[in-house]
Amino acid sequence: MTQLRRQDVLAGAMAILDEYGLADLTMRRLAGSLNVQPGALYWHFPNKQTLLGAIADTILEPLDAPVSATTWDEQIVEVAHRFRDALLAHRDGAELVSSTYASRLTSTHTREKFASAAIRV
What we know:
By secondary structure, the protein is an all-alpha fold. It is 61% helix and 0% strand. It is built from seven helices and no strands. The mean pLDDT is 89.
């Protein structure tokens, strides 16, 4: 039996999110899908909210790539398209990301990406 890793928990949660949606992403269901006891998940994520923040960060990873556009308006458009594509790439992605943003559970720098493109006038 292999040891459960944080990345395994995150990948399992993403799979449940994509298949069943945010409302059905429970720690019990996640533990069952990983064939572990629910308590094993808390070694990697102290609570569900922290897990949701990590999922939101994963969803928004495409925004971390350097912006290739040169003008400020093209940069904003590029970042906006990446943001939209990232949110639509996962079932309930927009709902999950917006709720973790409101709770300050995500560590992504999406706001800064938009702001830096906007101030390059």
